[in-house]
Amino acid sequence: MDKFNISSAEQVQEVLEWALAEKKKLSVNGAASKSSIGRPLDADAEIRLADMQGIELYEPAELVMKAKAGSRLTEITKTLDESGQQMAFSPPDYGPLLGGDAGQSTIGGIFASNLSGSTRIKAGAARDHLLGVSGFTGRAQSFQTGSRVMKNVTGYDLCKLVAGSYGTLAVCTSLTFKVLPKAVKKRTVLIYGQNPVEAVNSLRDAMSSIHEVSAAAYLPQNIANGSDIEFVSNIGGAVTAISVEGSGPSSEFRCAALCEMFKSRGQVEELHGHRSEKLWTYLANAEAFVADQSTTVWRISLPPSEASDYIKALEEQLPALEYYMDWAGGLIWVSLPSHVDQAGGNILRGNLKSGGHATLIRGSAEQRQNILPFQPQNSVLTRISESIREGFDPARILNPGRMYPY
User: What are φ and ψ of residue 52, in 5° steps?
Assistant: First the structure.
């Protein structure tokens, strides 16, 4: 397979024009840290954008940054941290989960896969922070969409289309996104010993309270024990975690109020500073499932109110199930032995009662070829998706078949 290490937008256009003329299929990657998510590609050549690095614009006062697609997330985070700012949706790093190195994620890859961490329930998804995109369609035509501010306009929101398309619509060369001030304090309230039903009820009550919860999760005992975080790994039971952040006095007040609110439901404890940050990184990056690379790993999105019933059904049908909840029960991470029939997809998807979707994040090439890694679409969504792709990439040269086999 030919490989093109891209360092400029002009090179992207040249490769696309070559692919169209020669009828070649292209694999599009940043640093390829998430290339094993989705169906295996049968491509003739690969575009690598990892060398297209650099922050092109950063205006802290305007809360906006523009960076080239191959810019490492670590570089962007460091620059933002120096100005006391952050990407509020807490972009995760799946490198170790997928058998690679940490710190390889690119800003283009984060938005192309629309990945968000635990703070999504407050800050929104990655796509909600994307202000503008520059790049090329599968027609080798350049485009620029969006602006440097959030505003309402009539027309198509191309940023939302590109986010989560996994490189099947366009090759993005630079992205403009909003940033926000970092919280002065981040504290986490822990409730010990709850079962899934009790935990979902507690997470619901926390989210509906006046205390502006920024993240909420439930760790069964085995997941809590697998961490190396004091007050989580050494308590010998399940842990319900609720995070608040903001100014010092505000965070302290809300943390104390939540402790008072839940003290009748189990023993409560607080995590401060580094331990709190470490817990939410552990959950966002699915670090509980890193050590055993032989298992298949799924992300399940569903209505939070159905999380406990869903887990109960899975435990009855999949005895080897390991899981934990994030997003107040709206996201469930699942790990299964590799020998489970259809990687467990038929059971995981069959128990989704009121919508939702199950995405295979880690699986063998054979599993990803034989089952759909992304939630199957109905006929209406399929027609809409294909109509959009026809407009962007009629020759189907960009990551062909990565999301669906058509």
Answer: -90, 80
Strand partners, 73: none
Task: Quote the CA–CA distance of 333 and 284 in Å, as a whole number.
Answer: 10
Contact 162, 112 (CB under 8 A): yes
Q: Could you tell me the two tokens for 192? A: 């010990």
> In the structure, what pLDDT confidence band is assigned to residue 157 with cuts at 50, 70 and 90?
confident
Please list, in sequence order, all residues whose beta carbon lies within 8 angstroms of the beta carbon of residue 179, skipping any fewer than 6 positions away.
Answer: 60, 63, 64, 65, 80, 85, 86, 87, 88, 129
Q: Could you give the C-alpha distances from 40 to 113, 115, 373, in angstroms and in order?
A: 16, 20, 10
299, two tokens: 């992300």
Cα-Cα-Cα-Cα torsion 249, 254, 259, 264, nearest 10 degrees, comes to 150
What's the CATH architecture for 287-379? 2-Layer Sandwich (3.30)
Q: Which class would CATH give 185-284?
A: alpha beta
What pTM, to 2 d.p., does this model score?
0.94
